[in-house]
Amino acid sequence: MRILLIGSDNAWRMEAAVERALKRAGHITKLIDDRRAKRLMGRGLTQLWAKSHARRFRPDFVFLSKCLALDPETVSEIIRDTPNAMWYHDPQWYRDLERPDIAHIAAIGRLARTFFVTGFDTEWRANGLTALFLPAAGDSGIKPVRHDATFGSDVAFIGTGYDADRAKILIRVSTGYNLRVWGQGWEKWKSSLNWTGRSVEKEQFAAVCSSSKIVLGINPARAAGGTSYTSDRTWMAILAGAFYLAEFTPGVASMLRDGEHCAFYSDANSCLNQIASYLGDATRRNEIKANGESFVRAHHTYDQRVANLLENRAFRNPL
Description:
The chain has 13 helices and eleven strands. It is of the alpha/beta class.
């Protein structure tokens, strides 16, 4: 099958990971980056550029990401009479349709045959979209690496510093444990956190996950109520060799087993208790890390998700 993908061509982003999975499945692909094109040639020429690529490539299927640099009329022309799907990884913004970027995403989602979301599918359907739940995933090319003390710590958190509630938990953890925070945007809390001041991707991301005793997952406050939502970082970290301590939600706990694939906490106090318990048991941590990586590699990579996208099929929980 010939598959056109529209989205970021950054090798570390979801769209490029989906393209690699499609290629491994034997498909012929073309990924075009609409936002990069807009930066280079302006919005008007980007519409012509995208339609020209689609005409020349003659896709059998079109995969849509946010398409923020494409007009709805452009997307409509590209997908006309062609099977397609959109996969939106930031579904917690369903309340904010008054924001221009979210309104645009919703407009593109209404054009798509299916609007796959990583959570809040009921809420998006209430907004008039054909939303279908499809959890995020990790790239099967992500693998554990050799321990590197440069990236190690007792506890690590990888993520952007835009959420004060996340910062509160991290500050509490940092008072009792060797915590390192990786990612941009933590300037507001830099005096209270051992913040590295930079992001980590690819091999460095794997080095943090493989070299830290515990990698912490904290859902953003905006994702509250999303019982099934989890970031793609959950799957990526486990694939990269992390012992992952995740915030409990019923949906995520139905996809990963506590004490077998990862560990869960429910609030700041239980987070601290879990950290204390698992830091004292390296054997147990290593067992869970190995089981978690094996399970996620078998069930939660993009290689498994592409069938859902192409066949317009709902997610079936392997557990």
